Amino acid sequence: MSKILVVDDERAIRRALREILEFEEFEVDEAENGKQGLDKAKAETYDIIFCDIKMPEMDGMEVLEGLIKAKVETPVIMISGHGNIETAVQAIKKGAFDFIEKPLDLNRILVTIRNAKDKTVLIEEKKVLRKTVKKFKGSSIIGETEGIIKIKEMIEKVAPSDARVLVTGENGTGKELVARSLHDLSERKGQPFIEVNCAAIPAELIESELFGHEKGAFTSAVKQKKGKFELASGGTLFLDEIGDMSASAQAKVLRALQENVIQRVGGEKDIKVNARVIAATNKNLRNEIDEGNFREDLYHRLAVILLHVPSLNDRRDDIPLLANHFLTMVCAEHGVARKSFDDAALLALQKTNWTGNIRELRNIIERLIILGGDVITADEVVMFANPGAKA
Fold it and tell me: On the chain, which terminus has fewer CB atoms closer than 10 Å, C or N?
């Protein structure tokens, strides 16, 4: 449910907007003056803000400037009973999303809200893309061995559905890339792809990360925060290293999957969510269940479709393709002329014991490009590859 803040010194306007918005099933909060509105927008998370321009003490333009200064990215819709073209242009130039004149028109309000929500989705997508564009640049699944062909076929079959998928495989095999491919080939591809590394987040913070928290829920919760389940609603939530999730978080994830609702930490209200969940692990979850570390009911909720990504040692025939792929990509990243491998170098790479899988291969290719010659030889592979990785 989207949350909207209405900032206006006229009670009648606030009440009218509340009635309209609540009828359309939005959650509405109010502020009776500019300062109160600015404080609320800084302390809590809103999807949209309606702000009157003419208010005593702090007018709407000052509120808008304060929001921009505080780096609040919520779309702001300015409203005024004294509107003219000049005022509207000034508001837009200062960073407002739109301008609506009083008396307020229902259809105009709803169209503007829809457009503002689209902008919010784009902002979240932009944040995610900034973090992932380098990682996924040119990173379609590379390989022609039987195991990889089967993975690609399964992805094409499973992606269009909303079925939950559990991706298994050793560290560095490309489980995240499989999850990204499932998202990109699905009907949700235009919505957010949100990733959570369950092993990298302390147990005491994982619930806040997944479900969000209310202001004051704990000492450092200075403002309301949406969790990953909410941010991924309509899109895909990728739970990496799910086998490392705490027992308490497992129970809440199970409820979210069963009922499609969550509660923020410190909150009591149910929030509906609609995220497709893809999970990944390098652990044997069956063994974890036997040892009491993982819930069997959660396993069955997650493992509707099972995809196992083979290790690099099990797909050595793909190494020349992968090596040349990384060679092209890394040379471009470093701004150097494209180098090449001689045949003996590729054979040496194929004979290496890849304990770190594709991640290790990519790192060693980068090392060879930086330290090796224009034509990379087998001797350079032996010299610059990790000696502990030799077969």
Answer: C
Same domain membership, residue 301 and residue 317 = no
E-strand spans in the chain? 3-7, 27-31, 48-52, 76-80, 98-101, 165-168, 193-197, 212-213, 225-226, 236-240, 261-262, 271-272, 276-281, 305-308, 340-341, 375-376
Domain that holds residue 360: 313-389
What is the Cα–Cα distance from 76 to 120, expressed in whole angstroms? 11
302-345 pLDDT, tens digit per residue, is 999 999 999 999 999 999 999 999 999 999 999 999 999 999 99
Q: Give the model confidence (pLDDT) of 78-98 as tens digits.
A: 998 776 677 788 888 889 999
CB 293 within 8 A of CB 285: no
SS3 label, residue 86: helix
Distances (CA, A) of 189 to 179, 217, 239: 12, 34, 17
Q: Is pTM beyond 0.90 here?
A: no
Token look-up 């960073």 returns: 95
Whether residue 128 is contained in a domain is answered as no
How far apart CA 353 and CA 345 sit, in angstroms, is: 14
